[in-house]
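One-letter codes give the sequence; each number marks local geometry. A record appears below:


***
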Amino acid sequence: MSALVEPDAPSAVDGGTRRLVVACGAVAREVLAVVRLNGWTDVDVRCLPAGLHNEPHEIAGAVDAMLRELASGYDAVFVAYADCGTAGALDAVLDLHGVERLPGAHCYAFYAGAAAWDELQDEEPGTFYLTDFLVRHFDALVIRGLGLDRHPELRDDVFGNYRRLVYLAQTDDPTLVPRAEAAAERLGLAFELRRTGYGGLQPALKRFGAPRRDG
């Protein structure tokens, strides 16, 4: 699979250390925001299609292909995926390449933080989660992705065991909260907002992206 090159990704400094982040398209905006906030001019970001979010069995192979294509050109590489439903297949690929990834099972966990995620699940196991990305692409990934636009009667079959929708908000974008509330109403779920910021994404990337000094 060929790389999707993020056009706004920072360019490496000529002759200096070059670092690469291979990112899930569903967290690309947030990864780029952290890179820019920290002023890392030696970090490049390359994104795989966000549609892999719905095809987790394809993630490990796609990451492997991108690492084989690009990793040799960089001094250090980090993968901005959690396990994301690969059932350990992604970790097996990363072990082969000697590359680290984001902590946790999925983006909801690393955004919320491990302890907060466990609390959310203990409070209500029947919770459907949205991030900023999923709010923006709710119709494409959830409604059309699950065929609910063509077969709305399937809503209760798909979401009948859910009780609430929790929006884990990475930003304070005022346009996203009403869209998340509308998504909850459309699915027949109670709505709850949790502002997480970038959660575990920022410290993980800061450990990778911080300038390294000899000696």
Notes: DSSP finds ten helices and eight strands in the chain. Residues 1-15 have pLDDT under 50 and may be disordered. Strands lie at 4-5, 19-24, 43-48, 76-80, 100-101, 127-130, 164-169, 190-195.
